[in-house]
Specification:
By secondary structure, the protein is an alpha/beta fold. It has 13 helices and 32 strands. The strands form ten sheets. Strands 14-13-12-9-8-15-26 form a seven-stranded mixed beta sheet, with helices on one face. Strand 4 and strand 5 form a beta hairpin. Helix 3 packs parallel to helix 11 and helix 6 runs antiparallel to helix 7. The longest helix is centred in the N-terminal third of the chain and has 25 residues. The radius of gyration is 27 Å and the shape is globular. It comes from Rhodosorus marinus. This is FAD/NAD(P)-binding domain-containing protein. Belongs to the NADH dehydrogenase family.
């Protein structure tokens, strides 16, 4: 037996044949081709040397000729530079494109008599859509279960809620992501982790009859997203609108026109007109800010031409619990957004806590009462019921705060063969922002892990096939790199054809705002559409709105 330090890891050479063993709480190791390895960061090598790992250290002999290595902390190799992470991502994207094109050209045939591992995906959002596009649905039997049979480009929901973009322009049938996947339009009622079965119910109930069925799985992937967090405040559920789905955007669009038509009636008192046209947005994040900006554009650019006598009663107020809005951005950009809203006439109320919402008013903790004719609640994310049930049923999830705790390879802690990504998951190393950018990268990453034949049941996943761009070679073991989020920046529309963009390259940030930035904002969103069809429709909608204005029809 000899011990050695190689690459960015430390190993102990033995002659055993065991794989995927976890020894103690502080060390995870794999033994493959006669080599046992524990992994540490390069800057910990000196500490390891002092512990005598490079010498013939104490090794506990096990059954046969195997051995247990000395305890060392597990730190899986990660990219430490922005350039290195970008390089990895470009390689992976190139491989994804090659696979997608190859699938379209060769049209592989699925052998029905060959049993394949079944991957069941819950949800059809960003993470699930990215996973479906990347995963090899010939190698696996892939089934998506979701009450929504389409992918929704959520960053543009605020635009659809006022008619700038049409609803169908930002949706794409989920089956188009991968022609080899299967899809069931149903809701998941529960998950039996021990038996690896989920219980589902069809969302289409003919003649009032419910259709409940079970789906067994080999691997389960949760991408159910998050709900809107009402914080238990009285009146929010009953008296507020929300903005997470197309149906909610449609209700918002209808609600605005309804209130203007109601205020326009000759029998409506003046005080009631003022209340009806008092629009309130609760939440100063991207959703709240962008909707307030889009609503103001709708009224000042289009509705003012048809309802000119009502404009004196119109107002938009943005209520934010913190002292500023768009807290994800740099302080200078936050102030620029505040100044732009002030110049536009949008009333921004910061440091305000809502304690109750009535049909006619918003009650604040400091005693103020804001009249409201329509309120959008965009104050944060909550937990889906299915996720809550899992959190309560898995003992290892007791420390979770509304999101399933997953490890560096997106495996749910305490649930074998269960994975989670997107807004319903939180990394052990710290929760990532609940954005489409994070979810999309996680979905594609997990798809590659399955495609590349990693031993995902092993404590430390290693490749059982040929190494590739997502493999870190340590000695003779190819370890799957953990997920790392590549932040390319954040964007927000702040009204009057002005946007803010904060590009990120590691520690460096480039901050842009103004009218020219709005063109860049449009370019990014147009190119990020998931199909050529959607790009054409979105561009045409912008052109149509610019030339003809937004449609104010009520139907």
């Amino acid at each position: 037996m000899c011990a050695f330090v190689i690459g960015s890891g430390v190993g102990v050479r033995t002659g055993g044949e065991r794989r995927g063993v976890c020894v103690g709480k502080r060390v995870r190791w794999v033994e493959r081709r006669g080599v046992v390895r524990a992994v540490v960061e390069p800057d910990q090598k000196e500490t390891v040397k002092k512990k005598g790992v490079e010498k013939e250290a104490d090794v506990v002999e096990e059954k046969g000729n195997g051995a247990v290595p000395p305890e060392v902390p597990l730190i899986v190799p990660k990219r430490t530079t922005f350039a290195g992470l970008v390089y990895d991502r470009l390689q992976d994207t190139g491989a994804d494109i090659a696979q997608h094109v190859g699938r379209m050209v060769t049209k592989p045939q699925v052998k029905k008599d060959v049993k394949r591992p079944r991957l069941v995906i819950l949800g059809s959002g960003w993470a699930s859509h990215s996973f479906a596009k990347v995963v090899d649905a010939v190698k696996y039997e892939v089934v998506i279960v979701s009450p929504r049979n389409y992918f929704l480009f959520t960053p543009m929901l605020a635009s659809t809620a006022v008619g700038t973009i049409e609803f169908r322009s930002i949706v794409e049938p989920i089956r188009k992501a991968n022609e080899f996947i299967d899809y069931f339009e149903a809701s998941c009622l529960g998950i039996n982790i021990e038996d690896q079965v989920i219980k589902c119910e069809s969302v289409q109930q003919l003649e009032g009859e419910s259709n409940v069925f079970d789906i067994p799985y080999d691997y389960l992937i949760l991408g159910v997203g998050a709900s809107t967090n009402t914080f238990g405040i009285p009146g929010v559920e009953e008296n507020c609108y929300f903005l997470k789905e197309i149906e909610q955007a449609r209700e918002l669009r209808k609600g605005v026109i309804t209130r203007f038509e109601r205020a326009n009636l000759p029998s409506t008192p003046e005080e009631e007109r003022k209340r009806l046209l008092s629009f309130v947005v609760v939440g100063g994040g991207p959703t709240g800010v962008e909707y307030a900006a889009e609503l103001h554009d709708l009224v000042t650019e289009d509705m003012s031409k048809k309802y000119s006598k009502l404009m004196e009663y119109f107002s938009v107020s943005l209520v934010q619990r913190q002292d500023t809005i768009l807290t994800q951005f740099d302080g200078a950009l936050q102030q620029r957004a505040m100044d732009n809203f002030k110049q536009s006439g949008i009333n921004v109320i910061t440091g305000a806590n809502v304690v109750e919402v009535t049909p006619t008013a918003i009650l604040l903790k400091d005693g103020r009462e804001l009249p409201q004719g329509m309120t959008l609640w965009a104050a944060g994310n909550g937990t889906q019921r299915l996720v809550q049930d899992l959190l309560h049923s898995i003992p290892e999830q007791t420390e979770a705060r509304g999101r399933l705790i997953v490890d560096d390879w997106l495996r749910v802690r305490g649930a074998e063969n269960v994975f989670a990504f997107g807004d319903c998951a939180a990394m052990e190393t710290g929760a990532l922002p609940p954005t489409a950018q994070v979810a999309g990268q996680q979905g594609a990453y997990l798809g590659r892990l399955f495609n590349r034949d990693y031993c995902l049941q092993c404590e430390l996943p290693y490749a059982t096939a040929k190494p590739n761009s997502n493999v870190e070679t340590i000695g003779m073991t190819d370890l799957a790199k953990p997920f790392q989020f590549l932040s390319l920046g954040i964007m927000a529309y702040i009204g009057e054809e002005k946007s803010m963009i904060q590009f990120e390259a590691g520690e460096n940030k480039v901050k842009l705002s103004g009218a020219l930035t709005y063109l860049l904002w449009q370019s990014v969103y147009a190119t990020k559409q998931v199909s050529f069809r959607s790009r054409v429709l979105v561009l045409f909608d912008w052109f149509k709105t610019k030339v003809f204005g937004r449609d104010l029809s009520q139907f």
